[in-house]
Specification:
371 residues, alpha/beta, Rossmann fold, Helix Hairpins, Heat Shock Protein 90, binds adenosine-5'-triphosphate, binds magnesium ion, nucleotide-binding, phosphoprotein
Length: 371
């Protein structure tokens, strides 16, 4: 995570030398000489921590700290004060500052204080992520229960409707004006049957296969199957690692996830675009298999980015809005995660990370394949 700090101090020499020293410690610094420029900078720059001198020449630093806190409550503030002004330090802490340092201080004192601040920022981000995932899990669970309850009975009723329609359609003479109506009704009943089957698939919780499997196989098989059929008008490229990538996941679920992503790519590009699939080992404090699918369509719009992982969210007339949330469900129960976003070129990008075994090979050459 990038560590970004704003130094709010009208002592330019101090601010510049501190920012140079902190850059060597991996902290990206911005400098503002007064409150107005600090507030303007915070509107456009993502900064998590601010170091404020409360003894500014033309402003009351304590009052400024209170204003910054009111405007950006998530900002973690460290105030700097002279030895004699402990009272004002207490006032600044009351104004929302997280810590304070007495000037002059050594770099390692500053680094220790900043370390605590950045840890707080990371903890908050992790908490927000966990809350988002929990909310999604709840939505997925509620939808699963609804789907499980409805789909079983609905499927039986549909079977009766389909059987009766088939008899009617078959018995109507070819020239009868009602025959096309019966045919349309039968087609609609078949489509409804497919929808129910998808809902039942959603209601079924993904099962973790106890035995780790090489993920290259389901990815390659699914990609080439779709390249020949549903995505035949597209350029489907598949980049697989040169060594086995073993993960304790049902290969069928990886295949289904990839089908969902490729069909989304096809829909986004009117069936004529490009889909790039990549499978890679990544280290994120643990071993993960990363499946990425990127297309060259228009990408997610703002509403799509915010809601596409929610079950039943769809912008397609025929969509069920279950594709991405099924992948999200697989990621959550497997201890991985699933993210969507837009690639730099503008197309959509989906990234599924699943815990895997450490690959036992040398450097990975990879294998780019056109399907
Ligand atoms: N590759 C993509 N490019 C742009 N938007 C996308 C892409 N993939 C998904 N979306 C957006 O996210 C929404 C949700 O996708 P999701 O796959 O969950 O459901 P769906 O495709 O609408 O229906 P289905 O359940 O049949 O998959 C889509 O309706 C679309 O608006
Ligand atoms: Mg879809």
């Amino acid at each position: 995570m990038t560590r970004r700090l704003l130094i709010l101090d009208d002592d330019a020499d101090f601010a510049i030398s501190t920012s140079r020293a902190l850059a060597l410690e991996g902290v990206e610094c911005r400098i503002a000489p007064d409150g107005a420029s600090a507030l303007a900078l915070l509107e456009v720059e993502p900064v998590e921590v601010v170091l404020i001198d409360i003894r500014l020449r033309h402003e009351d630093g304590t009052e400024l700290a209170a204003r910054l806190h009111a405007r950006h409550p998530g900002l973690v503030m460290v105030i700097m004060t002279a030895y004699a002004s402990v009272d004002s330090a207490v006032a600044a802490l009351k104004a929302g500052a997280y810590d304070y340092l007495r000037k002059p201080f050594f770099l390692d004192e500053l680094m220790r204080a900043l370390e605590r601040c950045f840890q707080l920022v990371e903890l908050r981000a992790a908490k927000a992520r966990a809350e988002r995932e929990l909310a999604l899990m709840r939505q997925i669970e509620a939808t699963s229960q609804l789907a499980a309850g409805l789909s079983h009975d609905f499927k039986n009723m549909l079977a009766v409707i389909r059987a009766n329609l088939a008899v009617i359609e078959e018995r109507l003479p070819a020239q009868d004006g009602l025959k096309p109506y019966a045919g349309d009704a039968l087609d609609a009943a078949l489509t409804a049957g497919e929808l129910v089957t998808r809902l039942m698939g959603f209601a079924r919780q993904p099962v973790l296969s106890p035995e780790p499997r090489d993920l290259r196989l389901p990815v390659r098989t699914t990609a080439s199957m779709l390249a020949r059929t549903l995505c035949a008008g597209m350029r489907v490229e598949c980049d697989l690692p040169g060594h086995p990538l073993l993960a304790p996941v049902d290969p069928g679920q990886i295949g289904t996830a990839l089908v969902n992503l490729l069909i989304n790519a096809r829909d986004a590009t009117d069936g004529r675009g490009r889909a790039q699939i990549a499978l890679r080992h990544v280290w994120r404090g643990g071993d993960y298999a990363r499946l990425t699918v990127e297309d060259d369509g228009p990408g997610f719009d703002a509403g799509g980015l915010d809601h596409a992982l929610e079950p039943l969210f769809t912008t397609k007339p025929e969509g069920t809005g279950l594709g991405l949330s099924m992948i999200q469900q697989l990621a959550l129960v497997s201890g991985g995660d699933f993210r969507i976003g837009n690639a730099e070129g503008g197309g959509a990008r989906a990234v599924l990370d699943l815990p895997c075994l450490k690959p036992c090979t040398g450097p990975d050459q990879g294998s780019g394949e056109n399907m």
